[in-house]
Design a protein that fits this description.
Elements: H1 3-19, E1 26-27, H2 31-41, E2 50-52, E3 71-74, E4 83-84, E5 98-103, H3 120-123, H4 142-152, E6 153-163, E7 166-168, E8 171-173, H5 175-185, E9 189-197, E10 217-224
Parallel strand pairs: 1-9, 2-3, 2-5, 3-4, 5-6
Antiparallel strand pairs: 6-10, 7-8, 9-10
Amino acid sequence: MTGSNALLFDETQANIAETYRPLSSVWEGSDGELLDAMLDFYPSIDPDPILDATYNTGRIWRGSTRAESIVSMDIDPQYEPMILADNRTMEGVPDQEYGTVVFDPPHVGPQGRDKSVKRFDVDFGASVECGKEHGWTLSYLYPPFLEQAKRVLKPEGLVLAKITDMVNSHRSRWAHCDFMRMAEEAGFTVCDLIIKVRTGPMQSNKWKVAHHARKRHCFWIVCRNGSCCERRPPANSL
C-alpha cells in the first residue's frame, strides 16, 4: 500500500470508528429489526439487492425498513413470490446477482405438532420430512442451498441464515452446528452467530413430560462469500 493509499485507509477506518455502534450477540427484538441491524453492521459491499430464498409469507421482515425492497423466492405459488423456484436449484437466477441472501428454512419435522396452538406447517415447515433416512434432521436441506447461494452472491456478499435446533427421535439435533460446518465446506467464511430469544418457551397442554429444556431461542448465522470476516473499506476509498 502506497503512502497516500495508507492515509486514505486510515481515514476510512477512523470514519468507521466514529460511526460504530455495537451489535449485541443476544437479540430480544423482532427478526425484522435484527435483519435491519445486521444489514447495517456486516456488509463490505452494498447489501442490495437482497434475495429472501425462503420467503413464504414474508413474516420475518415485519418491522423491517427494507421489507418493501426484498426479492422474494418461494417454491409455493400461493405466496406469489417474485421468483418461483426451489432454493436448492434457483432455476433462472443469474450468477453473482445479489449482495445478500436470506435463508429461513424449516425448523421442525412433522412430529408432535399442535395446530390448535400454532400453524406449524406454515410457520415452521412441519410438513418437511426428517426421518431416519435423513439422519433425523433437516440439515440435508442446507448443502444444495449453500451451493446456489455461493453462485448467485456477489463476492463479499452475505448469507444471513435463521437456524433452530430441534429434538427428534429422543435426541437433540444441532442444526446450527451442521449449518456452520456445511457453510465452511461450501466456501463461505462463517463470521458471526447471534442468539435471538423469545419472551417465553412454546407450551402445549399435550406435553406432559419433558426431557429437554424448552427452547426459547434460535440462531442467526452470518456468512461472508469471501475469506475475511472483517468489513473491508470500499475499493474506491483506497
